[in-house]
Queue: 2 jobs
Job 1
Amino acid sequence: MYTRKRNLWKSIDWITILFYAMMVIAGWFSICGASYEFDNTNLFNLAARPGLQLLWIGLSVGLIFIIMMLDKDFFDIFAYLIYFIIILLLIATIFLAPEIKGSRSWLVLGPIRLQPAEFAKFATALAVAKFMSQYNFKLNTFKNFIITLLLIFLPVICILLQKETGSALVYLAFFLVLYREGMSGKVLLIGFCAVLFFVTNMKFSEATVGITPIGELLVTIMILVITTLLTLSAGAKKYFMYSICGITAFAFLSGYLISLLIPVNFFWIGMGIILLLCCYLFYEAIHSWTMKYALIAFFALSSLLFLFSIEYVFNNVLEPHQQVRIKVSLGLEDDPSGAGYNVNQSKIAIGSGGMTGKGFLNGTQTKLKYVPEQDTDFIFCTVGEEQGFIGSSLVIILFGAFIVRLILLAERQETDFARIYGYSVASIFLFHLIINIGMVLGLTPVIGIPLPFFSYGGSSLWGFTFLLFIFLRLDSLRKER
């Protein structure tokens, strides 16, 4: 037993643990800077957030030892059970959690508050890895793909019912894992196109030229270009490209000449060309008995339907505060005292840090509490103000190196279970990093997700610690075998 434990600690990837320690320590100092109060200078006081975070860090070390001491097959054997327990907690949270800041995501157990959504990430990663690592698994079969999506989206539905949209969006990171494991890149293309079409249409939703809505026209042109390129990649003849270009040029030129006499909606011209192209694709699909042309036509028609649904979804599905956040992010509204307040104050704090920053505990924007949630979701603004551009860049580089390390570890795994779980871990950290920093800089809508190991909170720190060290335990098995 002693020899086995000694070999275990030798087989752990200490480079990743060093990254973890550096981020946790840097995060604690950032929380100190964000939570510092002039009348309470004791950073170790358990009544203040720095002291509490230090307590969570100490307990995390205990969790790490427990994880590393578990049997080597524990997570493989009990993956589904862990997932089931967390799903039950998520469902219980919907009905039992009190409403805090508009959401029901925290279970209150006396003095302790837990957010099950933070633990659902590693539980979902375990369940997905368990299912996809079964013998002779093929992701491209319809049944396997649907079951995998159900495993991913079941916690998403539960979290959405808690009104925690930000935490639910994190699960989109699993599509990177599916892509690594054989999912067609066309699925990612569809997702990218959906975001591109939505943003473009919303950005130019109020712009018109004559009676032509610019947003809808631009999206129509994008659909036409992408559909044409997909058709060419599917093996269409060269004359097809010339024909489409000729028809498009003739149609828009004719529309322009007619517009000199009567108003013309060029959006309808673009849509007509797409429908004509779809007719050609369906003809080719029947003529050559090739489904790929029909699928391309289906993509074009679905894109048009999606375009028509954007306005309805935005006005009737999204919550009012979500609508405002998107409009502020796209520059459609300027709400410096409302939805845009957090981002504006965050930008001011980061900009005031300059190149080298104001120094530890010397930030003015954060000390005067101008930035709401500055020790949780907006913790990066504290880094920018106190450590400046250099410190902020080092934090981003540290995260980048950490994620690259996780990918390298995932690639060297000897089992499908460990590899898939490892890619899930890397993808989740990558999503958090991009969205959180993008949110603080005003590049993405404010959706409220923490920066791993930096944002204050026991649930967040423990959730990420579980996520990471389960993978390190799986990785250590390489050298134990």
Job 2
Amino acid sequence: MPIIQSSIKRARQNERHRLRLLPYRTQMKTMIRSALDLVTLQNIEEARAILPRAYKAIDTAAKKKIISFRTASRRKSRLARAVQAASAPSK
């Protein structure tokens, strides 16, 4: 635990900040996971339907600086590729 008063205050601020941003991170991870689960179950139509909601959750997390905009772009790209690959006809 910090001893200096300013460090104690900063620790309190950091905890409040973490708790305020936690729902956005949780929502983003939940939407990504549900989209990938639908892809795994070969439920492509539902995966495509949930894709915009996952994009929105990722963009919101990036806007609030929970993740960087590059990380957001990479996650959206990988998610789109996963859905696209699952919808492609098998050989």
